[in-house]
Amino acid sequence: MRFRLLLAAFAAATLAATLAFPAAAQERIKFKAIGQPLATGLIQKNREQPFFEHFAEKTGLPIDVDYKPIDTLGVKDTEQLRVMKAGLFDIVSLRVSQNSRDEPTILGLDLVGASPDYATGRKVANAYFDTIDARLQQQFKVKLLGVWPFGPQILFCKKPIAKLADVKGMKVRVYDQNLAKFIELVGGTPVPVSFADTHQSLSLGVVDCAITGPSSANSAGWPEVTTHQLPIGFQMALNGYAISMKAWNSLKPDQQAKLKTAFEGLTDDIWKYSEELFQDALNCNAGKDPCTTGKKFKLVNVPVTAADGDLIRSAVTKVSLPVWAEVCDKSNPGCSQKWRSTVAPVLGLK
């Protein structure tokens, strides 16, 4: 009997508290967010996760975010746009190349040869932002909030090289078809190998060279089985942040403005941090100081020549744009023309 009275009293008190503070109960907003995989390293760990874990503080909004790295969710990184469209999550740290099969338009952000360095990558991202935003809203009811880079994907070789053209006759580990076509263009033999298998493939001579970011190469021990690194970016490994239109439209205009400003601040920070990590990893791989984020090795750091720059930029018109345009125009008529009118001018292409 006493327990029932206590329960009734508790229920009455709870109801009274709810009625007394309806605004407080309604002011807090809860969002669910998909993050980058834990395995992607320091950007996820030191920039992305802290931002989401302190979301209300970072944005100045009454929003609490349930943030989960995608490799802890049981969701494939190729399915991000689908689960967002289905309404299962509110915010996504979008992996661009992985989701380009579902929406080829977004790969126009990171064509092989278009962004060999950070400055160019930033120009491309800014020029193409509105095109991707409009397409994602139309097809997936998702709004783009920001674009950021993991950083240039560069060349590692176990044979001496002095320039990019020296890969002629060599077997090169690649991770997508556009990259394979470019390696063929410069006379190399592209070999598709998973990242996890690349160290062994280099060690056994299955491949002579391989492409990834310098920080990833360092953590995976590639400098143990290679001798040279050429720090020219084949791709910038660009990614983005996006929010479902349902979540976006649930916010008032002033809240939307605050959220947009916060994500612009986050992506600006990641652009700077990514470049710092890139340079630090290059130093570590070559055994130089400062080296604060990785293990020191003794790779030869091959200077990037003007001819290398010309060669990598030629990939856009000779390989990556034609291959991508054919696929993109099939699913999104006028896709490649839109790229030519927005991105091509900042690259000096006609």
Automatic annotation (TrEMBL):
Residues 1-25 form the signal peptide. InterPro entries: DctP_fam, TRAP_DctP_sf. The keyword Transmembrane helix does not apply. Keywords: Signal, Transport. NCBIfam families: TRAP_S1. Belongs to the bacterial solute-binding protein 7 family. This is TRAP transporter substrate-binding protein. It comes from Ramlibacter alkalitolerans.
